[in-house]
Structure formats: structure tokens, C-alpha cells
Amino acid sequence: VADADERQLGQAAAAGEAAAFATLVERWAPRLHRWLVATGTPHHDAEDVVQESFLRAHGALARYDSRHAFSTWLFTIAHRRRCEVAQRRRHAPLADIHAAPAAAALPEPLPAGGLWARARAALADDDYQLLWLHYAEERTAGELATILGCNGVAVRVRLHRARRRLERSLRHDPLSTVLEAQ
Amino acid sequence: MSDLPRRLRDEARRLPSSTDTRLAQRILAALPPPTAALRPLPRSAPLRPLLAAAAVLVALSAGALLLWPQRPATPGAAPAAPLTAGTVSGASLPDLTAILDATPRLAAPANTELSALEQDLTAAARTLRSAVPF
């Protein structure tokens, strides 16, 4: 999605055009959902987070700043909501946590043995999420800083370290030599 | 240079994105109905006439206050004549009562006017007492 097109849609939605907002929902709901599931949010929680993020965005359309891409704004809202849900899960009774371990252990869209699945296993949650947003969602370091609420320089440093860590992990992973030879 | 970034991008592009449209439909169904409140106000246009109207109202109020005629404290009553020693002597009892009622209370007891007034009132009361047959 071209940035200019996305900004225009965001501005039109902020001006009250329901069709523009519907287009944004159709474009970005599946991407947000994929990101959430790929970064370890259980499927049903991910759906709720996506829905609540769009509802919050809709309620705050008047505050949309068209200097940023609409999707960056959406990812920012969804990231905050995701953190709230994760925090709630951490404080949930032990029985609830054990009730749905499968979804968290192997996120749905990641094929086992693939590069992303190995990155998921090798990296801490924050680093893995950073790599995903940068390479899979093609967010720039500046956009990542906005989404995650941190400094752009810190984002670049963290990205670099996460990449090196993943490379080291892949070098010591016997599966990676087999897969690269194929 | 490592080709890891390219491999990460390539594999991410091959990953299936959710094609389930039910989520988008559920979100759109949950949205509140469109209202005028969602539309942001244009930034400048409506404020100018409002400010102009407010300025005219303020100017009119100030003018009305300045031009408003000063009225006596009691509508219909004539303003009391200045109370001096001369006005009291020879006055009848109802006149004195009226004069006293209309005279504002003096704040300073040391006022020289007050002592003269007291002397006149005392003299007037003595005159009145002598005029009454009992």
C-alpha cells in the first residue's frame, strides 16, 4: 500500500467517510492479526486486539496525524493493547495459562523449521517482535520508534543486535546447514 | 554482507496472510453509526463570526452600563435636602421624623456637623415638649 494512498484514506476516514475507514479495515485487519499471532498472541486474543484497535482508532479519528502512515498509527494502538492483554495474562490464574499453551508455543502462520520459526525460538520476545515489524511488516526504524514508543537510535541498535544474535544461533543450528544446502 | 535480511523478507512474503474476511466484517459491524460528531470542525471559519458576535455583545453591554441613568435609592421619593442646623429649627415632629429618616447615618461620631445637629435636635425637642399641653 503506497504511503500517500494510505494517508489519503486516513484523512478521508477522519473527515467522516465510512467507506475509507472500511477500506483501511479490510487492508490492515489481516496484517495486524498475522503480526499478533506470529509474535505469540493466542489466536482469540489476537482477534480481540485487532477489533479493539480499530474501534479505538475509529473513536479517535479526529486525532489522526496524517504525517504518519495510518497503519503506523494502527500498529501503535495495537501494540499498546497487546501489551495490556499480555500483562493481564501474566496476572491470570495458573489454570488459565495452562489452558491454551499450544497457540502460544507455535504461532499459526509460522511453518515449523522455517527461518521465522527458528528466530522465534532463538530470540527474546522483544527482539523477535522488532525483527518481525521491520522485515515482515516493512516498518522503518522511525516507524518502529513510534510504534514501540522508544528512541530511533535505540531501535537501530536493538535491530542490529537481534540480527547478530539470530545469525549466531543459525550458525550453531545443524538444521540451518541442511536447509541452506537444499 | 549477510543475506539474512533478504531471507527474512522473502520468507515473510511467502507466509500466508489471514484471508478470513469475517474479522473485518465483525469490526465494521461493531463500529458505532456515523455521526456528525466524528467530523472534525474546520479550524478557522466558524470561529470568526462567533468572536465578532462576542465582541459586539461586550461593546453593547459596556455602552449600556455607561449610559444608564442614575436613579434615586427609593423610586418616587424626592432626594432629601442637605441637613443643616437651619433646616431643623422650627420643624414639626412629622417633618423631623421625615428628615431623620432621609438623613444617611454618619459614620464618624467626631464629625462637627453631628454635634451641631444634636444641639439643634435637642432644642427642637425642648420646644416641642413645651408646646404639648401634658
Textual characterization of the structure:
The complex is a heterodimer of chains A (182) and B (134). Chain A has helices at residues 3-14, 18-38, 43-59, 70-90, 94-99, 101-105, 115-122, 125-136, 141-148, 152-171, 174-181. With 182 residues, chain A is mainly α. The longest helix of chain B has 21 residues, at 47-67. Chain B starts with a helix and ends with a helix. Chain B is an all-alpha fold and 134 residues long. The A-B interface holds A 14-16, 18, 21-22, 25-26, 29-31, 33-34, 38, 47, 50-51, 54-55, 58-59, 61-62, 109-111, 114-116, 119, 131-132, 135-136, 138, 163, 166-167, 170 and B 2, 4-5, 7-9, 11-12, 15-21, 23-24, 26-28, 30-32, 34, 36, 38-40.
Summed up, the helix count of chain B is: 6
The quaternary structure here is heterodimer
By DSSP, the count of extended strands of chain B is 0
Largest interface in this structure: A-B, 39 and 28 residues
Secondary structure class of chain A reads mainly alpha
Q: Which class do the helix and strand fractions of chain B yield? A: mainly alpha
Binned strand content of chain B? under 5%
Topology pattern of chain A, helix = H, strand = E: HHHHHHHHHHH
Total DSSP helices of chain A: 11
Mean residue pLDDT of chain B: 72
Question: How much β-strand is present in the residues of chain A?
Answer: under 5%
Q: H/E series of chain B, N to C?
A: HHHHHH
Low-confidence runs of chain A (pLDDT<50, min 5 residues)? 100-107
Percentage of residues assigned to helices of chain A: over 70%
Describe the main β-sheet of chain A briefly. none
Q: What is the CA–CA distance across the termini of chain B?
A: 132 Å
Task: Identify the notable features of this structure and list them briefly.
heterodimer; A: 182 residues; mainly alpha; 11 helices; 0% strand; B: 134 residues; 6 helices; 56% helix
How do you describe this structure in short?
The complex is a heterodimer of chains A (182) and B (134). Chain A has eleven helices and no strands.
